[in-house]
Amino acid sequence: MAGIDETTTGRGSGPGGRSGRTVDPADRAQLERAPVPLRRVTALFRPYRWQVATVVALIVSSSAVALATPFLVRLVIDEALPRQDVRLLAWAVAAMVAVTALTAVLGVAQTWLSTTVGQRVMHGLRTAVFTHLQRQSLGFFTRTRGGEVQSRLTHDIGGMQSVVTSTATSLAANATTVVGTVVAMVALSWRLSLLSLVVLPPAIALTRKVARMRRAVTAQRQRHLADLHGQVEEGLSVSGVLLGKTLGAGPAASRRFAETSQDLVGLEVRSQLAGRWRMATMSIVFAGIPALVYLFAGLPATSGGMTIGTLVAFTTLQGALFRPLMGLLDVGVSVTSSMALFSRVFEYLDLPVEVDDPADPVELDPASVRGEVRWEGVDFRYPDGARPALTGVDVTVPAGTTLALVGETGSGKSTMASLVARLADPVAGRVTIDGVDLRDLRLATLAQVVGVVSQETYLLHTTVRENLRHARPDATDAEIEAAARRAQVHEVVAALPDGYDTVVGARGHRFSGGEKQRLAIARTLLRDPRVLVLDEATSALDTATERAVQAALDEVRRGRTTITIAHRLSTVRHADRIAVLDAGRLVESGTHAELLARGGRYADLVAAGDRDEDLLAA
């Protein structure tokens, strides 16, 4: 995987650097859990089959051309130099230079083509995974760690490039080199070839054992590095620093960081020593085998009348055999690692889309929508929920009116509102706008009809202008400013040094909670939706600011259908209708005055609100 230290994967840059790799148990477990058919992997490269074939041809050609060098060396030593044949010497030297130049050019062409193919495949996968994940329901993201999504989208797909630029190309190159080298060695001297091949297995076993020792040490080091990175992320993020300062936990965090860093010192020393032992072992191997070859070449019983040029050519070939042979021995590990990456990415691509566009959508003009919203016998249960979130809900909101949803925490208010934006689909019943089931509308059409301002405001790390324009990319600066005025936030933005071009900061930390909420309201108003869902939209505002924003919202929602989840009596009392929820069921419905007169659940909530000034705590 690109960007990962070679000790993590067992790859090295020195001679035989790929030696000693073992299959990661996590990779094996991944493939057992989600096996990947080879034809699915090859299908990714089918559009580039001619480029891949060309890459293989370049690799084979480069390896074959490089084998000419030892024979040219023998020609120089045995023929040109003893005879003092300047012409032959010049031709042989020129051929050596030509071989080197040709292999270099072929290598550059192969690298360019294989990298291009790999990057294009990665681009297609990145785009496909990102698009597919965007279609997932919110439930998927609440069940999945955010870091895992980023890891699969970037690291795993980035590592998959090795299938073309590393695994596949090295397999072709190593196989060609090994076969060609062995044939050339046998052609030069079958006796010395037999000796080299007999000595290689124990030498390979020794180097693999030393490399496995290093892998064990470096695995510990990677775990400690992960802990160190986690402490950096948690301790030096905006939220982490704020938490540390407010709790006085900074010194303790520094001590934990120092302890982890100290442990890393010892592991780093052991890792480097293991690496040096591996290199020392490799040096012994590289020095020992040629020494034995020289010994046997000097013995009358085994030399077979070998010339000096043949001996030099043979040792040159023998020295070039070790690395590609080790690469072939490791091909199983490389394939397993690569297939595990494909498995992880395909797992995401194979996730079913719970909320998707219909096969035969109803065409609806957003401009002609009246805005009548209706829940008809709606049941809903979260996948991991112990009980239903909604049961048998029947509510109708006439076009242009306001519905307030009230109830205690967990009563189903936000769930009921989220179904209008089709963040999820009911398990029974249906939700309609103007009589059309939301599941029969394109998601893009529904997004134009329904606008949502949630209690959790999220601002992008860009300018205020671009944050607002995110809702409607074609909005003019005048329209952006008008939306900000209606949300009572224009004066705040205009007072900033760069006005609407001010960068809001990570998650909008430049602004207060109330200011962020008003920016979110302005962003939604910019889209001018026919149905407005306000999920605790004013929960972060002080009383004075809430009054100003509420006055703006009262003006904006004229002619619109508005569904409000709020916890303050001032917001609820003026709604055209109030729906009271309890444990996912609709228990009361009516106006503020009617519900108070009944003395039921709503009246109890109002009484509680009078006591603690928190009518509908969410």
From TrEMBL:
Species: Geodermatophilus maliterrae
PROSITE patterns per UniProt: ABC_TM1F (PS50929), ABC_TRANSPORTER_1 (PS00211), ABC_TRANSPORTER_2 (PS50893)
Region (Disordered): 1-29
Domain ABC transmembrane type-1, residue spans: 53-337
Membrane topology: Multi-pass membrane protein
Intracellular or extracellular location(s): Cell membrane
Alphabetical keyword list: ATP-binding, Membrane, Nucleotide-binding, Transmembrane, Transmembrane helix
Family matches, as Pfam families: ABC_membrane, ABC_tran
Residues that span the membrane, as ranges: 50-76, 88-113, 188-206, 280-301
Protein name: ABC transporter ATP-binding protein
Domain ABC transporter: residue ranges: 373-608
Gene Ontology molecular functions: ATP binding
